Amino acid sequence: MNSKRTGIIAILGASLMWAVEPILAKLAYKNSDFLQTSAIRAIFVALVAIFYILLRRRRPLKVTGRQFSQLVYVALAGTIFGDLIYFYALTRVPVLNAVLLAHMQPIFIVLIGFFCLKEDRLTKSDCAGIIVMIFAGVLVTTKTLENLSAVRLGTAGDVYVLLATVAWATTTIVVRKYLRDLDAGVITFYRYIVASAVFITYLSLRSPLVFSNIYQILVGIVVGAGTIFYYEGLKRIKAAQVSALELTTPFAAALLGFCILAERITALQIAGMVLLFAGVCFLSKKEDACL
Fold this sequence. Notes:
This protein is mainly α.
């Protein structure tokens, strides 16, 4: 199997895991809080990563000092901040809102690359894609024409998801720029073992770590598999292709949210899904830079 095909399959696998993750998290919250669930999730993601490393018989966990510092950043920004605030947001917003807003990540990857790394120039298609995706986000968060006409653009929970999305975008750039040579299992292990240490330390000062339900463990296994799939795909195909393929997640999450959690989908949110797809198509186009 060629590298591109492997990358496509890996990202589709990750997308399925991202769709299942918020459903399991919502189920876990029935008798647990988001902090306890986040801690247990991080521990089991690290265990999944160890299993993957042993299964592939790769050199175990050897990284340079510079790579370790970059992995610590990925852990702090992506898991301690991004994942934690996303899990908190799931206690306040529907699964569909969370997943759709999280998939506005390509906007921030393009903008961070332009303003901070100075490696990419914005094209007309990039600009069009960003505008379309911002409008898609407005439709998703407002939900109805009544809210849109009254300029009720969403809730604090929606803002939390966007903050998480920005944090994840920064870690994607770090991994693509500095850590592409590392095994996906190694990246996943360090990201979540560092996060596990932080969570356990904090909880030991506040309250004991408690396994309240099987969903806390299942969400860790699902995220572990999804993260490994994502990093394997990220090494093999372009970021724009990754973003386009990940759009299978909102559709799967909408279906699961409706079937399992009985979450309603509005016509405006469906329009937002279509626009989100169109926005990523614009970002995926190749043309000469204009900015």
